[in-house]
Structure formats: C-alpha cells, structure tokens
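note to self — DONT lose this again. spent like an hour looking for the file last time. sequence + predicted structure for the chain T wanted, 306 res
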Amino acid sequence: MAEFELVADGLRFPEGPVWMPDGSIILTEIEAGRISRVFPDGSRTTVAETGGGPNGLALGPDGKLYCCNNGGFNWSRNGDFLAPHGIADTYSGGRIERIDIETGAVEILYKSGDFGCVLRGPNDIVFDAHGGFWFTDHGKEDYKTRCHDIVGIFYAKTDGSLLEEVIFPSQNPNGIGLSPDGNSLYAAETYTCRLMKFNITAPGKVDEAGGPGGPGIPLYRPAGWKFFDSLAMEVNGNICVATIGECGISVVSPHGELVEFVSTDDIFTTNICFGGPDMHDAWLTLSGSGRLVKTRWNRPGLKLHY
C-alpha cells in the first residue's frame, strides 16, 4: 500500500476533489449537501450549501465551480461509515450548478427537462479545450419500486445555450475524462466495471465506433467483485480509475492494460485528483470513512484545462 498523509477527516462522503493553486482542495460532501474547501493544514471552510447531492466538481473557464448535483441519496450508516443507498426520500432532481467560490452563490445552469434532456443523477464532469464540458448521468436506483434508470453521457456549454445527450444508452457511467490530445473520451461504468473509450470527432460529438451496441469501445474490465467510480488522467495518457470493493486506484494504459493498482483501506475509494508544482501530488477521497488523503504519485497527472 502506498504511503498516505491524512489531510482531513470527518467529511460526509467526500467526492469531486479539485486542486487549487493555493494548495487547498475544494470538494463535495454528498451526504451533507455542501461544497467544502480543505486547506493543507486540515482546516476547512464551507464554500456553498447546494442541498441535494453535490457529486462531481470542476473549475470552468470563468473561474467558477461547476457541480453535478445528483439530487440526493438515502444513506446506510455503520457507526461513522457511510454508504449511499438508493434515491433520497427527499430527492430534489438532477441538475448542473454553477457556484461562485467567493460568495457561495449557487445557480442552476441546467435542470431536467431543459433542451428535452432528462437528468436523473449527474455524477462527474470534465471540461474540454473549447470551454464546453462533458458529464455523466449515473441515474438512480429506487429500491422501493425496484426501478433502475437508463441513462447517458452529456455535453453542455457554460452559457446555458446547449445541453445535449450525446451517448445513450450508457451503463450507469460514473467517472469521465479526456485524453491529453483531447481526441478520446473515457467513461467508467460502475456496475459493469467497464472502462469505455469514445472517439471525439468535434466538440461534443463522438463517432459510432463500437458496433450495434452503440458508440463506445470497451477498453478494460477487471475480474472479481469490484466497481468503478471516478477517474483522472496521467500526462502520459494512463487512466486512473477509483475502484470500489478492491479499495484503491486502477491505473490503465490507453491500450487497455493494467499498469498498476494502488491500494487504500476504504472500500469506497471514489476519486483522485492531481496537483502541485510537478503534478506528482495526488489527493484521494476515501468516502466511506470521510477522509481526504494525499500521496506522491509515480507519474505526473494531467493538468486540467481550467
């Protein structure tokens, strides 16, 4: 197991870490319905109260945060250990939010029904070089009615002028990322535990590679009891996928080979982000136990566009 430094604990199912130039990490606390900022000394402040289920997070070209809000989960609790458990009784609807870091103001940029799109549980987000963003909709499971959403992958613009479901159907996609050259889109499917690759043909467009099942090329799928969550990219094109169940990060090459597995001690290891002067610093969210940890990564991470 890699050596990890504890940065913060007591977080309420943290996800979506974003490295900031001052060394702090802004992240979501899904169970608490808030965005928090954690400083290197472990101190923290609340950036915004979103309600619902703030999940994936990214900085946009305007310096504001863009949040995938899944509308909320119910929760299973075992002492201080948290696990999501189906759609919230107080589900408030899937949406994309824009957040002013300085004031904490929360604006709903897109909601379900806009542009004819259904948003059930927006999950993770990545910006491209053109200032638009891709995001996954993981959907919802309703254990009371035994319903499971059929969902997709979307592309949108920050000015509110475009929301399009580009890939449908997708198998409960979670993490999403772009190759260093911007020509490939990667999405991690949770329950199938597949890492999918899509060939980008233009901003917000992919080709039909993948055959009759629709666009997307299965790149990697491990054996065993495990599920994929969020992902981040290395500068060399490797895809670092948070792996639930096996507890850690699966590093997969662009050719679909497992490069290494970095173990943790939390079954809900959900996210990784890179930062620091040389991009070798990695922060991981150990969500079930409510921790943010830091380690030195073997290879540099890919710097995000904004």
